[in-house]
Amino acid sequence: MQDIQSWLAELGLEKYGPAFAEAEIQFSDLVDLTEEDLKEVGLPVGPRRRASSAIRAMAENDMPAAIGIANDSTEEPQHQEQLDTSSNAERRHLTVMFVDLVGSTEMATRFDAEDMRNVITGYQNTVAGVVSRYEGFVAKFMGDGVMCYFGWPRAGEDDAERAVRAGLAIINSVRTTTAPDGTALATRIGVATGVVIVGDLIGSGATQEAAVVGETPNLAARLQGVAGPNQLVLPSETRRLLGSTYKLTSIGAQELKGVGTPVEAFVVEGEAVQESRFAARQSGTLTPIVGRDREIELMLERWALARSGQGQMVIVSGEAGIGKSRITRAVIDEVAKNDHTRITYQCSPYHADSAFYPVIQQFSFAAGFTSADGLDTRLDKLEALLGQDPETLKLITPMMGLDGTARYGALDLTPTQQRAHTMKTLAKLLVQQSQDRPVLLVYEDLHWIDPTSLELLDLLLDTVADQKIMILATARPSFEYGFGGHPIVTRFALNRLGKDQIGDIVAKLTGGKALPDEIMAIIAQRTDGVPLFVEELTKTILESGALKEDGDRLVLDGPLSTIAIPTTLHDSLMARLDRLQPIKEVAQTAACIGREFSHGLLAQISLLPEAELTEALGGLIAAELIYRRGLPPEATYLFKHALVRDAAYESQLKDTRRAIHARILSSLEADPDIAPEVLATHAEAANLTDRAIDLWEAAGKAAIARPAFKEGISNLRHAVDLINPNVEGGNRPLIERALALQVQLGFACLQGLGYAADETKTAMERALVLADMIGDTPLRFDVVFALWTGRYVRAEHAEALSWSKVLLDVAEASGDSIEIVLANRSRAVYSVMSGSLAEAETFLDKSLAAYDPARHDGIASRFGQEIGVTTHIYHSFNAVLLGDTGRAARHAQEAENRALASGHTITICYMHGHLIICAIIANDEPALAYHLNALKPIVEEHNLHIWLIIARIAADLLRAGRGDPAGIDGFFDLDAEMVAGKNGVWLPTLRIEAGKRALALGLDSQAKELATMAEEVIDRTGERFSLPDLHRLWAALANVDCNQEAAEKHLVAALDVARQQGSKLWELRAAIDLARLMQEQGRIDEANALLIPVNTSIADDDCPADQMTARKLLAALAN
């Protein structure tokens, strides 16, 4: 007979034993107790529900919460926990054991029915007793078959190992019993482990059982079928969990009915003999024993440097649970011994696409914002925190989502300028704080940082380099951002702890009381030196009730096998959560909000009354699963570890999680200040796909408008990923919606990542597929134009030509003047690049003829630049090559005027960048310097990668032209960046120009290398317009080697190619070089015959510098 205390203990209610004793309730009274009786005893709501459920089950089964059969084993079996009919189904990592009695069908034909009943009952009794002893759960009796769970309804220690131990014990116990005719009985057993859905109750009364959905039960049953008599068979997944604890023999891959792929199966031969249990659990190389003293010392050394005005950044990297936060806390505590300011920026996985999120959260916390604060109150608090400088507050208030216009005035900045000035202001505020005392700036969880905050962090590195500031950051190994190798950055990875350090953590948790050696060995073995594992596992053991105090030690208060020691962190966390029913459900609900959650939001979505919710949260705090900041209803809570939150979240069914996320979304949507990406995250998790797509699109547009391209791209990609699976076989409106999103994503990539980026190419190729599915769509031209742009910038000119022809076809069919402008310009670009200058002029004239400023200006957001500017640019480019420099200047001026008038950042950069190339070709150093000085501050402010490289290349060419060889070294580095970014256009021109300047500096080998590099690109891409100039460079190199014959061959080739192209510029320069060579050889008449007609074929006001050189040479020839 079971007693009250053990019954209560099985339900986790043992602390109410004295109350039951005081009420003189006996075990036999339980089935008659009512809800009112339990209230009178003093049970609160949660415990009362559990007790009522167990009492109902007892009444239905007419039996106590145990297996109501006798036990033939030598030990009295533990009573099995009764199913809680109020519990919800859950996702569980479960080990299932299927036991079968060998030959039972044949025995039934030989023995009397009553005798057979006794055999089955005795067999079931033995199985149930052993399973209960090893803390398993008998889920179902099926005549001669028994299905058992290890890991549900409560997770425990070594579920897979306990299942195997129970199986071997069953084999040994059953084989000692006999049939009526004296023959020994035998069993066959299958064991399997995997994720299942468990907890749905089917049937009623005595037939009620906990159903399991998943492949694992079927696998266990099928493996039982391949086992021989008195054999236990398991698959490789379970074998992995067992380590080297057992001797296993493979029986090869088995084809099992209902299992899709062959399963390698193993027969358990028995327990392995190992030097220690620790060794038995290891299957790989042991982690080296490393402490934390050196890392802390290193960080404090960096802090000392920071205090002296040598700013530092330290990044602590390591896997989840390795102790990054713990070591950071130790440094914070040490630093706190001296006067300083500490600021903490906490990154969030739910806000990885929310610009400035950690900064906003820190300011909100430091200012003391509450949900009841109105606008004026928040502005007052912000002033108290940051001061009353209106220029500062003008920038900070919009970042905080506050309208400070009435108090501080409006900002007169573009979104890009506003973003850049905000970053500079944040850096300035940080520096100001460091003037009075040193600052420790802590960044938690950099692996979740939003791109804008990461950009701010990049900026801060230069800012803090000479300040009394140290940045201390934590990150998981997946965060590989290198901060450009900045000299103040120190990064180190935390290794796992050794045995001594594990002992230190355990001693702190036990209050200095020593644990038994066997317990310490298991902790060291199971945790693999991960501090979180050590901490959580130790707490599980201490809460298990299996230990008692004995002086300065804790000793076992029962057999070791009864201690629920988890094998993995997941199991450890689930074991702790299981003991917190029903408040576990509160943790699961909160987990859907995120690692950090507010009391107010949880109260809105929870199904519990406020009083019960507050009590449940108190229980989670007491169990140290969560921390609280502030008091309800303004309190916020934080799961102690991200993995604690993950375990609570993932244990719920998807349908349950979706319902909770839907409630969160409904609640948050009432707040207009909630960022759309936060709403989108919950809408997606709630499986509200259409709503999520709309929200991700809104988040993307908002980010790009700031502009925060990386966040915008990420948000739009979420929308695209959600809609794409439904496109195949979808209706036209759905495909058109998908296409619109895909085009937005493609142009966001084009602006944020560059024309040549793989992401841009992939996005637009997908858009083209969608356009083809629709057929007639106005977005087709936009898609093809983006694809053409990518091929052109990559210098894939043959493919670019194909796309330009498609553009011409589409434009001709539509008759749209915008498309005609762009299609002809794109076709002209190929002609320029290939050196067909007259053909290019024809297409450019058609483009310009179709251009109408009144209709076509102001559409830069559609195609990336103002289209009139781009047409004038290429007219100027082509005119330079034709030698018509006067016309080139007019087109260049028109392009500049229109670009500046547009105010469109990308168009302005496009204009200056292209005119830098024109200036290089024209040998116009003043123009080169002018456009560089105009371009450089813009691209640095907006971090526009390709134009930033062009600006730096121009700067290095100017340095080299002024006699500084470092300019050539810098060019090689930037050239490599161009290649790495797949930006191939103009590479021959730039390499040739760098080669000429290297040769002028006497850097012959570098000049030759650059000429070779240029030639390779021309041969590979067909970008031949600069080929005459390359021949001139090769001729100059030949002259250095005193090889006039080779030089003349190259100059003749330069003349021939220039004439084929129709380039008067290249023809004149080649003629000057060749005439000079002839002069040196005394071939005066030939030189005059060559140079005079070329020079006179060019108008007097064109190519003035080259014509002046020609005239001087002709004068010398005349003398």
The number of helical runs is 51
* Binned strand content: 5-15%
CATH topology of one domain: Rossmann fold
* Global shape: elongated
Quick rundown:
By secondary structure, the protein is of the alpha/beta class. 60% of the residues lie in helices and 10% in strands.
Account of the 3D structure:
With 1119 residues, the chain is an alpha/beta fold. Among the domains are: 1-65, Transcription Factor, Ets-1 (DNA polymerase, domain 1, Orthogonal Bundle), CATH 1.10.150.50; 83-281, 2-Layer Sandwich (Alpha-Beta Plaits), CATH 3.30.70.1230; 293-493, Rossmann fold (3-Layer(aba) Sandwich), CATH 3.40.50.300; 499-562, no CATH class; 574-673, Arc Repressor Mutant, subunit A (Orthogonal Bundle). It has 51 helices and 18 strands. The strands form 4 sheets. Strands 1, 2, 3, 4, 5, 6, 7 and 8 form an 8-stranded mixed β-sheet that branches. It has a 5-stranded parallel β-sheet with strand order 10-11-12-9-13, sandwiched between helices. Strand 11 (439-444), helix 18 and strand 12 form a beta-alpha-beta unit. Helix 17 (415-436) crosses helix 18 and helix 39 packs antiparallel against helix 40. It is elongated, with a radius of gyration of 39 Å.
Topology:
Blueprint: H1 4-10, H2 17-22, H3 35-41, H4 45-61, E1 90-101, H5 104-110, H6 113-133, E2 137-142, E3 145-150, H7 159-174, E4 187-202, E5 209-213, H8 215-226, E6 231-235, H9 236-242, E7 246-254, E8 263-271, H10 277-281, H11 293-307, E9 312-317, H12 324-335, E10 341-346, H13 357-367, H14 375-386, H15 390-399, H16 405-408, H17 415-436, E11 439-444, H18 451-464, E12 469-475, E13 489-493, H19 499-509, H20 517-527, H21 531-543, E14 547-550, E15 553-556, H22 569-578, H23 584-593, E16 596-598, H24 599-605, H25 610-622, E17 626-629, E18 636-639, H26 642-650, H27 654-668, H28 676-685, H29 689-705, H30 709-723, H31 732-752, H32 758-774, H33 779-793, H34 797-814, H35 817-834, H36 837-850, H37 853-856, H38 860-863, H39 867-882, H40 885-902, H41 905-922, H42 925-942, H43 945-961, H44 966-980, H45 987-1000, H46 1004-1021, H47 1027-1040, H48 1044-1061, H49 1064-1080, H50 1084-1096, H51 1104-1118
Parallel strand pairs: 4-6, 9-12, 9-13, 10-11, 11-12
Antiparallel strand pairs: 1-3, 1-4, 2-3, 4-5, 6-8, 7-8, 14-15, 16-18, 17-18
Helix pairs in contact: 6-7, 11-12, 13-14, 15-17, 17-18, 19-21, 20-21, 21-22, 22-26, 23-26, 24-27, 27-28, 28-29, 29-30, 30-31, 31-32, 31-33, 32-33, 33-34, 33-35, 34-35, 35-36, 35-39, 36-39, 39-40, 39-41, 40-41, 41-42, 41-43, 42-43, 43-44, 43-45, 44-45, 45-46, 45-47, 46-47, 47-48, 48-49, 49-50, 49-51, ...
